[in-house]
Amino acid sequence: MISPENQRYAIEQFAEREGIDIVEWVEGIDESGSKKKSAWWTRLAYCCEQIEGHQADVLVLWRVDRAARSKLKWAITEDRIETAGGLILSATEPNDQTPAGGFGRGVLVAHAEFMARSIGATWKETLERRVRHGLTPNGQRHFGYVYSRETKTYSIDPREGEVLAAMYRAYIAGDSARDIAERYTNPDARPVNGAYPRYARWNTVSVLRVLDSGFGAGLILFREQLAPGTHPPVISDDEWARYVHARDARRRRPRAERSPYTYSGLLYCHCGSKMGGRTDHGRPRYACVESSQYTRHADASLAAHVIDAEVVKWLQQFREELNAVPPVRRAPATTDPRAEITRKLAGLAERLDNATEKYLDGDIPKDAYERRRDRLEAERLALESELGRLNAQSTVQPVAFVGDLVSAWDDLPVERRREAIRVLVDRIEILPPGSPRRVVVHSIITRS
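The structure corresponding to this sequence follows.
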């Protein structure tokens, strides 16, 4: 607080010398004029409004650079005040109102912006270097960890670390973020000075923010990008891959997170259309979307309990085959579909870059560029979702996973059944009546 005190003193002395009556102080403590979204700019706009409303005549600054770290915002401020008949004066710099004085002030404004950008660039390089070395940009608090200011390192908190790992595993298993928040909120927490202790109360947003940060997986989130950190993780790489898949799947189908139907998004009719869940006289069924809307064919629905029975039978057979022919392996790397998806993603990125360059060069109109961009983005999102699902499936140890799923099937809630089935199954096809099998399960996991 030394600098604000010195600034106030300098302004008071200047005002006394110039015979200016100070009618109001406007301060921005801990608000940097270098930030585009700083609260300081709102306060500066307020100063303009006071002069425009003839509540004041002069805006006195400690130095011009306190309000001129953005040339655009400074130009707007200067124009508003001068248009209203007011003045901007500096308590520590010349205030010559001649054209030469205006030129000098312009030099000060340019210097202020230059210094702000230079300081910002230095900080950016410093933070990027820390992240490259696996360190956080700062020593801020992270749930599940304790930070040592002596060693500048994080260690797992014995109690919170277990809770953080349990949160990840619960979400992977199918629990919603809302359920997790309710489970770990401390009902006995009481506000202190009007605020609850940090991490004493949870909601959907705070749970997802902590999990999405990846800190519990040994990662550092910096400028929307994840980088490997040096701190110990509370979950394995496989568990992180499965969390990313579950998070991505629910983000693309938010209603499915709390859907009452186990096979949402997995069922396909023999006509090729998807099948959606519905309730018929209090009992769940799945119906062909196309047929129910356009009456493409008859016998377009099937009761949920019939599908349940066939899926459980498939799981039991799958478990027996796994136990009879261990170990289980997947397709050789040469046929790994993830490599093809990665290649397609790289191609999409190149096509998007080319389209952007053509738009910037004026070779294609804006509407054509936006259509191409949206189409490429949709393809990219679909491929990333598929890659996440395949990564999640590659982490499964089928013998243990299937065995546990069969044993606990009857006791599992719908959400956990759905997430588990999605890891094992690509799609479930419903064949027409009279077929040898009405329900056919297709899985990516192969046996040799």
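The CA atoms of residues 159 and 340 lie 42 Å apart.
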